[in-house]
Amino acid sequence: MTDIMSVNRKWFMAAGIILILLGTAAIMVPIVASLAIEILFGWILLVGGLAMIVHSFRALDTGKCLLRLLVGVTYLAIGGMFLFYPMKGVITLTLLLAVLFTFEGIIKIAIAVQIRPTQNWGWMLVSGIAALIISAIIYSGFPGDVVWVIGLLVGINLVFGGWTMIMLSSATVTE
After folding, report:
1. 130 domain-assigned
2. Number of H helices, E strands in the chain
3. Which range (55-69, 72-86, 121-135) has the least confidence?
4. CA neighbor of 99 nearest in space, from 152, 161, 142
5. Hey, which of 46, 57, 63, 159 has its CA 20 to 30 A from 174?
6. Helices (H), 8-85
């Protein structure tokens, strides 16, 4: 991991700055960010579903056409529901986001332990703990705070992730 950080120091810095800027924007307008995230996710599922449906018909001779078609239709239906019912989609994504932040926090803490001799490794630990705190905040306010919570908490998480990248990029590698 330290080899990757030293070789890609400038990329870590640039990625950190971009994450901080995006996170700040999401924090400033959390409702807009929540709806934008939900709508983007809806379009991704919709386009992905269409691609899977087309692929299922192109794979007729493999015998797995029906299963691929069902997956594509499911993606299409869920993407369509997110686009036609954005607030219900925000509720669903808020719960999924809580699960994501829980796993992210656990993984970041594990990575922090692995890179522990590296200078500024504690920033990864703090980022992991912050992700776990964010997931706890979502669980505690669910479902009442769903309108703004995705945008705000994704913004906060992006800012923490950005600072982590910047701090790791500025670390001197100690073996």
Report:
1. yes
2. 7, 0
3. 55-69
4. 142
5. 159
6. 9-28, 30-58, 65-84
Domain ranges, residue 129? 12-169
Provide the b/e sequence for 46-85 (b: ≥16 CB within 10 Å): bebbeebbeebeeeeeeeeeeebbebbeebbebbebbbee
Mean pLDDT over residues 58-81, rounded? 83
Are the C-beta atoms of 143 and 28 separated by less than 8 Å? no
What are the CA-CA distances from residue 108 to residues 41, 43, 131, 135, 175 (Å)?
A: 24, 29, 9, 14, 21
To which residue do tokens 């992210």 refer?
104
Report the C-alpha gap between 164 and 171 in whole angstroms: 11
7: in domain: no
Express each pLDDT in 97-155 by its tens digit. Answer: 889 989 999 999 998 898 887 777 888 899 899 989 988 988 887 777 677 888 888 89
Q: Which residues contact 54 (CB under 8 A, 6 or more apart)?
A: 72
**Number of domains the chain contains:** 1
Helix/strand/coil for 56:
helix
Residue 82 counted as domain residue: yes
